[in-house]
Structure formats: C-alpha cells, structure tokens
Prior knowledge:
By secondary structure, the chain is an all-alpha fold. It has helices at residues 6-41, 44-60, 62-78, 83-112.
Amino acid sequence: MPYKDPEAKREWERQHRPRRLARRRELRQMDTARKQVRAEGTGAAKFLFPVIAGGVLAAYSPKLAIGTGGLTIAIAGLFKKGWSWWVVGVLLVVLGLFFYWSNQNEGKQSQGSEPGPKMLFL
C-alpha cells in the first residue's frame, strides 16, 4: 500500500474497499459459526455423564468418590469453573458419604446381631 502519498492511499482504499468488506463479512460468519458449534456442545449430556459416573464410583468405592468430589470442588474454585463443576463435586461428596455411611451401618448390623435359630435345608 502506498502510505507516503495520502492521495494514493485514498485511491488504493477506494479500489480495494469491496474486497476488504467481503473479507470482514467472511470472518464474522466464521466467528458466528464457531460460536454456534460451541453452544451446541453444551447440554444435559455434558452435565449428566459426570453425575452418573460419580454415582457408580460412589457405589463401588465411597472413599474414592469423596476424594474425587473434593478434588472437583477444589479445581472449580482454583480455576473459576462454572456452576456445573460445583454441583458435580458436591453431588460426588454427598453420594460418597451416603454410601460410606450405609456401608458402615451394614457392618454394624451384621456384627451386632445375635445369631438366631438356624434352619437347615436338605
């Protein structure tokens, strides 16, 4: 572009204006399409999958679920994640505590119960 001469610069800008406007329009369309693709990726599946996986983890190993939930809450706080991270972390901790508590109660009931009459099946 001829920047030294102001008249030549104006003439160059006048001649290339349609091309520059078309390029800007194309870039705006690409940016809009990119934003729409990101918006479509958010949804219930992104939120429900960690919750379901956390429930399975809590049923398998409650202590591991409590640790994972605590780590999720810590990451959400440190990296300023969205509300869904907080909800998933809290749910993991609550489910882990629930399964841990229920496992503890089952252990106490089986140890504390007195042996009743045994039935023999032949």
